[in-house]
């Protein structure tokens, strides 16, 4: 029934080769460094599903380039902040004591989608160490991008996002909007006087499972699509189709810098009032 519904809802019949051709026609090139955010269902009916999509990405970029995907495990977090669903307060301490520690090899991503999960388990993919907001990478710069991922402020200067910013990297949005664009959180982290909060997570430390607290900012990805409208106008970014999916290919550095300026101007406007 699920397959039938997907077939009925699809306008496109997609294969690995069709995805590769459409990626190349719209600027995705061999040797690029890209961070991919994706929705499998948005592409239409894909022969081979997420396996075909990951193969298409890897064969298009090749090992001379690098593919990065967010492999977040936000279920490994302090239950006092859970909302969908919330859990009773009397459970909180038991959850903190019993949540399995993050393991970059075995811990599945949470809410990231089928494409990410298939990519994550490839034997030649490496994953960063952050127990809540890790990134997985494959290709030439995979180790460099994922290493030394800071526990505190994990979308900040000591994160894979900052390493992507430093090189000529691109965001590839496959059927998702900018509210899925993790790179924009780097701009939030660079803002002065940003409030920080304490969060909790289960992780391994010297081979032992521990519950650790870390500092992070309270990011707001719901505002990213609004910011991106101005960005696309300024830089002439055009969306394109891959199958049924509306997609975009966006330079990381320019997007982060624009987002930073947007927030800066908002603060200045607020201060002037």
Automatic annotation (TrEMBL):
Keyword RNA-binding set for record: no
EC number annotated for this UniProt entry: 2.3.1.-
InterPro entries: Amioglycoside_AcTrfase, Antibiotic_NAT-like
Key word Transferase present: yes
Protein keywords: Acyltransferase, Antibiotic resistance, Transferase
Entry-linked Pfam families: Antibiotic_NAT
Catalytic class of the enzyme: transferase
Catalytic activity, as annotated: a 2-deoxystreptamine antibiotic + acetyl-CoA = an N(3)-acetyl-2-deoxystreptamine antibiotic + CoA + H(+)
UniProt cross-references to PANTHER family, sorted A to Z: AMINOGLYCOSIDE N3-ACETYLTRANSFERASE, SPBETA PROPHAGE-DERIVED AMINOGLYCOSIDE N(3')-ACETYLTRANSFERASE-LIKE PROTEIN YOKD
Family of the protein in this entry: Belongs to the antibiotic N-acetyltransferase family.
Protein name: Aminoglycoside N(3)-acetyltransferase
Organism per entry: Bacillus seohaeanensis
């Amino acid at each position: 029934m699920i397959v039938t519904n997907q077939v009925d809802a699809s306008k496109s019949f997609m294969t690995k080769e069709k995805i590769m051709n459409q990626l190349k026609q719209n600027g995705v090139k061999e040797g690029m460094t890209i961070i991919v955010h994706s929705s499998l269902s948005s592409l239409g009916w894909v022969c081979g599903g997420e396996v075909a999509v990951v193969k298409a990405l890897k064969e298009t970029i090749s090992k001379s380039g690098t593919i990065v995907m967010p492999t977040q495990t936000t279920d490994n977090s302090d239950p006092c902040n859970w909302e969908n669903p919330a859990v009773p307060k009397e459970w909180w301490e038991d959850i903190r004591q019993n949540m399995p520690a993050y393991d970059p090899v075995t811990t599945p991503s949470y809410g990231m989608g089928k494409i990410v999960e298939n990519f994550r388990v490839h034997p030649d993919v490496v994953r960063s160490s952050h127990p809540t907001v890790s990134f997985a990478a494959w290709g030439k710069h995979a180790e460099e991008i994922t290493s030394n991922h800071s526990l505190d402020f994990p979308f900040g200067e000591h994160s894979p996002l900052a390493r992507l910013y430093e090189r000529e990297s691109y965001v590839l949005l496959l059927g998702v909007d900018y509210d899925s664009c993790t790179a924009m959180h780097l701009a939030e982290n660079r803002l002065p006087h940003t409030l920080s909060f304490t969060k909790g997570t289960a992780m391994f430390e010297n081979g032992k499972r521990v519950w650790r607290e870390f500092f992070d900012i309270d990011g707001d990805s719901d505002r990213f699509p609004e910011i991106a409208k101005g960005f696309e106008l300024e830089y002439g970014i055009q969306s394109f189709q891959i199958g049924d999916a509306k997609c975009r290919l966006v330079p990381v550095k320019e997007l982060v810098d624009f987002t930073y300026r947007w927030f800066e101007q908002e603060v200045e406007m607020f201060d002037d009032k």
